[in-house]
Amino acid sequence: MSPSPFSPEVVNAVTRHMNDDHPEDTLLICRALGDVPDATAARMTGLDGQAGEYTVTVGSGERAVRIPWSKPLTERPQIRSEVVDLYRRACKELGLTPRGED
């Protein structure tokens, strides 16, 4: 695996934002795109240029999930775009209407 294009500070800022402000979106993404439809909780634990990394709760245990981006990322602004895309794809997969599109 190649080194991440993102500094630890960027990774910490993104994961903190996702976990503090978007926990429901993170759970939807993991359920739909992370092959854990029975997950009851999820938190973003990391990311690199290839994927987002999550820890999900399934039953009484936790497991790691890695969900690839649609393309390799090299710039911080690309992360937001990719996460929004993951959220929209997850909503479509689950038959939900994404926020702002009703």
How many domain regions?
1
- Rg of Cα set: 13 Å
**Order of SSEs:** HHEEEH
- Which strand order spans the largest sheet, edge to edge or round the barrel? 1-2-3
Low-pLDDT segments, ≥5 res: none
pLDDT average, as an integer? 95
State the helix count. 3
CATH class: Alpha Beta
Overall number of strands: 3
CATH topology: Split barrel-like
Report on the biggest sheet.
Answer: 3 strands, antiparallel
First-residue to last-residue Cα separation: 40 Å
CATH architecture: Alpha-Beta Barrel
- Roughly what percent helix? 40-55%
**Cα shape:** globular
Question: What is the CATH homology-level superfamily?
Answer: PNP-oxidase-like
Proportion of residues in β-strands: 15-25%
What structural class should be given to the helix and strand makeup?
alpha+beta
Question: Which descriptors apply to this entry?
Answer:
globular; Split barrel-like; three-stranded antiparallel beta sheet; single chain; 102 residues; alpha+beta
Describe the structure.
With 102 residues, the protein is an alpha+beta fold. It has one domain: PNP-oxidase-like (Split barrel-like). Helix content is 43%, strand content 23%. It has 3 helices and 3 strands, in the order H-H-E-E-E-H. Strands 1-2-3 form a 3-stranded antiparallel sheet. Helix 2 packs across helix 3.
